[in-house]
Request: fold
Amino acid sequence: MRKHLPPLLACCLLLLTALPSFAQKFSFEAVKAYPFPTALTASAQGSRVAWAVDEQGKRNIYVAEGPDFVPRRLTNYLQDDGQELTSVSLSPDGKWVVYVRGGDHGSSWNEEAPVNASFSPVTPKVQIWSVPFTGGEPKALGDGENPAISPKGESLAFTKNGQVWGAPLDASAPAKQLFSARGTNGSLEWSPNGEQLVFISNRGDHAFIGVFTNAETPINWIAPSFTRDRNPRWSPDGKQIVFVRTPGLGGAPDSVLARRHQPWSIWTAEVSTGKAFKLWEAPKTLAGSFPGTHGGANLHWAANDRIVFLSYQDNWPHLYSIPATGGKPLLLTPGTFMAEHICLSPDKKWLVFSANSGPDKQDIDRRHLVRVPVDKAAMEVLTPGTGQEWTPVVTGDGNSIVYFCATAQRAPLPAMMPFKKGKPTLLGESLLPAQLPIKQLVTPKQVTFKAPDGTTIHGQLFEPKGGGKKPAIVYVHGGPSRQMLLGWNYSEYYSNVYALNQYLTNLGFVVLSVNYRLGIGYGYDFQNPENANTKGNSEYQDIKAAGEWLAQQPQVDASRIGIYGGSYGGYLAAMALAKDSKLFAAGVDIHGVHDRTITRTLGITAPDRYERAPDADLASKVAWQSSVTAHVNGWTSPVLIIHGDDDRNVQFSQSTDLVQRLEAKGVPYESLVIVDDTHHWMSHANALKVGLATADFFQRKLMKPSNAVGKK
Reply:
């Protein structure tokens, strides 16, 4: 419910709101000026690397080559037009750089659809491009995505509308469809000699692995069954394939609310015959379920004829290896930490990855580079310290590891270190703009507190300088399978949030970023808790505990605590306002989910079959009770609701519905709609708009005397 203020009072409030800005040391525009690197890749031969960089919405390809690895911008996209660059890859000889321009490849649906956040009268395309490493004009190879360059280095395969196409790297001929197969086809990988292409044909309740040879040879289906096969990888000699098998959909309805093991197994198959053999089956425990991590099972066929994979079976996402003939898996990475961003070295003898592990007890909230042989539990942390390091690649010559890194102050940049170990070298410091206020950013502190059920919750506390009681804000990440760190985050979405948390701290707010249960980094049980999500929202107790912990801190004014978050974090922020407006005086809900029964309960309570789950009615009721909309009657605190109407992760209608409910209840709200942008603010201008609106709202609602918190 919007209310209008008398002109004189409005002017006074405007003056009061502006007063803190005189002491402001940097602007949000300044802290958001950081460049963000993604999609790092290395050529199979030599020492060439390539990656994408987002510089205030201007996204370009950068390249470098050893031994000096001096970054060089290769493309010339100089507009903030919302066109992302993904699937960056190099031909084996390093002569060509390939990338996809357009779409929103972090979305849950329609990722291949164009994004037009700049309102261009001409609809943008999602296209595959190639450009010579040495420089030149990029050439469009065709509309599509998911390019896979042949080991011969002359052509690539890619997907378009669920079918597989091919094109020469130099664009000397138009793209053409390689073959036709039912289903949605993808996960392309060439055989080592470049003569065959393995792919997945997803057919809904089941999925097949197929091998394409040429237009004259029928597709070879590998051990087709009533299962979902995935993650195919070639043996070094190209005679076998290793893959993951999970059950197909179906069976009698089981309990919706119960936690169940999600079975999976690893199989090998002879390509010539299609005959498959089970190599390993995951333990039939909850932790033995298929891993919900970056890269899933992270399956590879490594040197010494060993298969490497990732499993949560000991409660942590660890790397294992097993002989290709079978046997007992060898745990390569024991310890209480997670492995992610996993890379197999070109000689296939080493796994290099990032992990929240190291000599410092606070490393559980960081990322460091680690390596381990594929056949021996001899793990080494390569980059100890207080920084963050992630996404390593090993150059084709095996001499160097190139990766991204950041600190609590310095934004992400590429870096290089010798594979034989040595001092890391930071690359591209000149990319950091002069206005980035590196020296004025605070170092967040690791804090822990207990939820009501005794679970230990980690957070990062940002504290402004100066004494006295200050307003405070709880930040809630999305996902929910994410982890906020003690520095700039490896996700562009969360680096954006890290910048905003630094800006809010600079304005005088104490900010607590909370890593609630359902998030990664603290083991299987933490990531997969009981009664969470739509099964009871048990994770909300961690959010409330964060607010109560803040209220007890001597530097915090307990009557001026706000909360904000995006996506799943928006859902939990809205839940906090609905359930605990007495604790949370104001909030910002950014593209949150509010009704957890939409698109869910009909399939549970009235499925298109005779049978129903034994707890169908209870599960539907619990999903409703886990929804924000079920608790709107208790909502009194003011809120700012933000949503982009081309969101492909959370339906825009979730916010439309909530606005109508708040209006009907007389809850004070403000709104900001971002037209034609997605969940990830593809336009830098829109990311600025959202951050500034969030900060302005909290300044107006919380930067006031304790007896006037902004409630109406």
Observations:
- The first helix runs from residue 7 to 18.
- Residues 1-23, 706-712 have pLDDT under 50 and may be disordered.
